[in-house]
Amino acid sequence: MKKITSQQQRVLDCIQIYLNKTGFPPTRADICKELGFKSPNSAETHLRALEKKGFISIESGTSRGISIINNDNKLTQADNEYPVIGLVAAGSPTLAQENIEQTINCPNKFFDSGFDYFLKVKGLSMKDVGIMEDDLIAVKKTNEVSNGDIVIARLEDEVTVKFFQRKSPKIVELEPANEDYENIVVDLEYQDFHIEGKSVGLLRKN
Amino acid sequence: MKKITSQQQRVLDCIQIYLNKTGFPPTRADICKELGFKSPNSAETHLRALEKKGFISIESGTSRGISIINNDNKLTQADNEYPVIGLVAAGSPTLAQENIEQTINCPNKFFDSGFDYFLKVKGLSMKDVGIMEDDLIAVKKTNEVSNGDIVIARLEDEVTVKFFQRKSPKIVELEPANEDYENIVVDLEYQDFHIEGKSVGLLRKN
DNA sequence: TATTATACTGTACATATATTCAGTATATTT
DNA sequence: AAATATACTGAATATATGTACAGTATAATA
Predict the structure, then answer these.
(1) How many percent of chain A have pLDDT more than 70?
(2) Is residue B136 within 8 Å of residue B204, measured between CB atoms?
(3) What is the CATH number of domain B79-203?
(4) Could you state, in order of their start, the residue ranges of all structural domains in chain B?
(5) Which nt is closest to the CA of B45, judged by C1'?
(6) Please, where are the H alpha helices in chain A?
(7) What is the pLDDT at residue A6?
């Protein structure tokens, strides 16, 4: 993160304070009023500088389209906002902005080993171990998994949650916990396979 | 808080999701785009209804001037230590010190409606709805329960987790979610029965 | 039965707002 | 010495946006 000038800091603080107070970001005119500027261009140039330095993002052509970019310097807080990502049949569950349905505030060490995001479950392939539709799996991003771990894996374009079982150096088996589903045998030599992470816990709201 | 219609709930959810995604509230047009309305007035009337019912506030004449009113005051928003209580076969799960196995740090409003303690599950009587041995059920202490709720009930000296079903003014049925278990018919006139609370969520660590 | 709330489409318009252009001035960097 | 970044004023403008008005229709309520 680049260094910030004192005036730019004032503008950044102003945006945060305005957000806390009203629930929505200020306009250029609002910032001028708060900080005593007489021209909206004063706010504009500061905003552009803050955007260039990566402190905020500005949605072009959008009223109040300012959002503060969190570098997550929440050293004082143990909590964090964790994204909830939908398990889409085709395509990997990435942390891209458009895939984030909501965020959940949760202590960092909630699931003992720490985790990276929540994955919303589709289907019942793991129902016998109590993983039901729309449950939220706490996923720790890693590719170091052991036999018997519940993993989030991508096979070609499909993302699934299954038990992991290495059969041989080149063969991996993905095992469901539901007799209506078949084991998936993966040949690492010929198939595009990737471990997204493993389940370290589960959350359900009802 | 007054009751909300399903369409109004959709609009409220839409605002929250838009806020999470962009950092600022939606315009009327944005809401229309998200929910498929063809006139900005559709969003407008829903917003007015939500404002009238106290779910949101609208700043007049202000672009994107919508803010969601959360009735949970920031004072209780802080984290809390929640006790984990074992489901002992005999005796009610009380908050007495000797029954507390451990505590878990968790945001107050983690399970949307708020809750009082975690109950560690014994047995598999609710396995078909994904409640497994050693899972932690988030319990809200209440005796206002509806048919179909998952309740924590005490019958004589036994505490169980089951579906609640009122059959008649004096007959309540406790239904497991496991074909190996039988329904329990409770005659309120002759049996000592008490609702400890109901399940508002579930937590599993692995 | 009349009234109110819900749930929309569609048009129109005043104004709220982002954004550009034209300046002035000082400090910092190349 | 020239270029760039900072830090403003002031005016102009295209458009983004709230909001009113005119309808249609159904369900709930008094």
Answers:
(1) 84
(2) yes
(3) 2.10.109.10
(4) 6-68, 79-203
(5) C7
(6) 6-22, 28-35, 40-52
(7) 84
Domain A6-68 and domain A79-203 have a common topology = no
> Per CATH, which fold does A6-68 belong to?
Arc Repressor Mutant, subunit A (1.10.10)
B29 CB below 7 A from strand D atoms:
yes
Kind plus residue range of the DSSP H or E element containing B171 = strand B171-175
Q: What DSSP string describes B103-164?
A: EEEEETTSSTT--SEEEE--SSTTGGGT--TT-EEEEEE-S---TT-EEEEEETTEEEEEEE
Give 10-residue mean pLDDT values along chain B (206 residues).
80 85 93 91 93 91 91 44 63 49 75 84 92 92 89 84 93 94 92 89 91
Amino acid identity for residue B135 in this structure: D
Q: Is the C-beta of residue B38 closer than 7 Å to nucleic acid chain C?
A: yes
Size of interface A-B (CB pairs under 8 A): 110
Q: How confident is the model at residue A78 (pLDDT cuts 50, 70, 90)?
A: very low
Integer angstrom CA distances of residue A196 from A182, B62, B176: 21, 44, 36
Rounded Cα distance, A111 and A120, in Å? 16
Number of Cβ atoms within 10 Å of the Cβ of B136 = 20
The three-class DSSP label of residue B182 is coil
Any B CB within 8 A of A16 CB: no
Spatial neighbors of B73 by CB under 8 A, at least 6 apart, are none
Rounded-to-integer distance, Cα A100 and Cα A122, Å? 15
